Amino acid sequence: MEKVNENEKEYRKGNKSGPKYLMRGPKLEWGIIRLEPGEAMGAHGHNEVEEVFYFFEGEPKILVNDKEHRVKQGDVFRLEAKEKHDIVNDTSAPVRYIFIKCPFLPEDKITY
Question: Which domains does the chain have, with CATH numbers?
Answer without folding.
Answer: 14-111 (2.60.120.10)
